Automatic annotation (TrEMBL):
GO terms of molecular function: serine-type endopeptidase activity
NCBIfam families given in the database record: prc
Listed name of the protein: Carboxyl-terminal protease
SMART domains listed in its UniProt record: PDZ, TSPc
Pfam families assigned: CtpB_N-like, PDZ_2, Peptidase_S41
Organism the protein comes from: Methylobacillus flagellatus (strain ATCC 51484 / DSM 6875 / VKM B-1610 / KT)
């Protein structure tokens, strides 16, 4: 049995939440060990002894030490965390695309659990939870005072059991109540369709182990359905919290020339410094597996692309958007992204637990850091259904306590071309005939989410119009 520590590099959704992600393996080998601060350790031992002797109730040693580890990691930045054995198993299960829970990425802010993004096709998404919602209560238990780990544990549970969330939402006079039924969350990371003849639509909900392969299959399937060459493609990364680093590299490599730089990382240790290019060794996991991009149609390297992003697009999503933007392979459309530009390393412990430690920052091919800044779209298109209050409440990396600074803060931001805003009373054009079941599906339910890529999806339709305009220009 190999006696090596597995390390996973992840660029996951913004915080330790219901879904986490795991990536590359490496070897932890630190040649130098810092000298222990003996005076501070004596203080720690003194506090430990006072709690053991004077606290109002007896406390087990294991609980005190675990909470000390939790506090030590949580005090570093919003993404470093201690994962007990159960949380570590959930993290590993999440990368396979199946895990238990409600289907929300969450973080802790000012003592409350804050929704970063609901994951598509999950109980939380279908119930209408939104980015920026503050969870006050889990059933009848106030969240204030809980650790994030404790709150996540309470939200997990056996499938088909119910939990009531009491939520504060900006713009609402009273707290909202959501009754959710827990489920085994099986997420489909790649969804696709031919929007119109010649125009492909691919939505990636998160970056999992097989996302790159599924993307390649989707492109080949649509190419067979379309018969002729594609005229344009919409890559939808909205509300994608991230996931596996190598999956993000694979998605980028599908549209970039072989060997082009996708992302590079900088950290204190040599193992934290990487340059990942559009080559199979950087996106194919396991040396025995074949390059799943090897037989993609050559047109994918030159196909006009619009990438849709928003405030819920984080981490690996920002790597893909940044790489395609820097290489001028795509037009980025939507709203500014979340801004998570750090890499976390999963370090397994001997007791079955693990720590998730921030070890590096990542940079786009042109050296841009998106940390606490995000990717600025080439064309800004707001969501038609988002009010100014909801937009102001959108959670981003820069809003999180103890977030890492941007090492290139102050550099000139790229020029942004705003798109005309849709009038508030604008509605999708009514069909000339009685709507069928598909048309009904395209329409958003009351207070529910809009179906991405549907007639009611304003940003999607703007992207499609842009591709058609580019096609006309190319013909001229």
């Amino acid at each position: 049995m190999r006696k090596l520590k597995k390390i996973g590099l992840i660029v996951a959704g913004p915080l330790l939440g219901v879904m986490l992600s795991l990536s590359y393996s490496a070897i932890a080998d630190k040649e130098t060990k810092p000298q222990l601060p003996l005076d501070d350790l004596r203080t720690f031992a003194e506090v430990f002894g006072k709690i053991k002797s004077d606290y109002v109730e007896p406390v087990e040693d294991k609980k005190l030490l675990t909470e000390a580890i939790n506090g030590m990691l949580a005090g570093l930045d919003p993404h470093s965390a201690y994962l007990d054995a159960d949380a570590f198993k959930d993290l590993q299960a999440g990368t396979q695309g199946e895990f238990g829970g409600l289907g929300i990425e969450v973080g802790m802010e000012d003592g409350f659990v804050k929704v970063v993004a609901p994951i598509e096709d999950t109980p939380a998404y279908k119930a209408g939870l939104k980015s920026g919602d503050l969870i006050m209560k889990l059933d009848d238990t106030p969240v204030k005072g809980m650790t994030l780990t404790d709150a996540v544990k309470r939200m997990r549970g056996k499938p088909d059991t119910k939990i009531t969330l009491t939520v504060l939402r900006k713009g609402e006079a009273k707290p909202l109540t959501f009754v959710l039924t827990r489920a085994i969350i099986k997420t489909q990371s790649v969804k696709y369709k031919l929007s119109e003849p010649g125009y492909a639509y691919i939505r990636i909900t998160q970056f999992q182990e097989h996302t790159g392969e599924d993307l390649a299959k989707a492109l080949k399937t649509m190419r067979e359905q379309n018969k002729e060459a594609f005229k344009g493609l919409i890559l939808d990364l909205r509300n994608n919290p991230g996931g596996l680093l190598n999956a993000g590299v694979g998605v980028s490599a599908a549209f970039l020339p072989k060997g082009e730089l996708v992302v590079y990382t900088e950290g204190r240790g040599e193992e934290a410094k990487m340059r990942l290019t559009a080559n199979p060794e950087n996106y194919v996991r396991g040396g025995a597996r074949a390059d799943y991009l090897r037989d993609l149609p050559a047109e994918m390297k030159t196909l006009p692309i619009v990438v849709l992003v928003n405030g819920g697009s984080a981490s690996a999503s920002e790597i893909v958007a940044g790489a395609l933007q820097d290489h001028k392979r795509a037009i980025i459309m939507g709203t500014q992204t979340f801004g998570k530009g750090s890499v976390q390393t999963i370090l397994p412990m001997n007791n079955g637990a693990a720590i998730k430690l921030t070890t590096a920052r990542y940079f786009t091919p042109k050296g841009r850091s998106i940390q606490a800044k995000g990717i600025v779209p080439d064309i800004v298109v707001e969501e038609a259904t988002v009010s100014s209050q909801e937009h102001a409440a959108m959670l981003r990396e820069a809003d999180l306590s103890r977030h890492l600074s941007n090492p290139k803060e102050g550099e000139e931001a790229p020029t942004v071309q705003p798109a005309p805003a849709e009038p508030e009373n604008t509605k999708p054009e009514a069909p000339a005939t009685e709507p069928d079941s598909k048309d009904q599906k395209d329409k958003p339910a009351a207070n529910g989410p809009i179906e991405p890529g549907s007639k009611a999806d304003y940003q999607f339709n703007q992207a499609l119009n842009l591709l058609k305009g580019l096609q006309i220009l190319q013909r001229k």
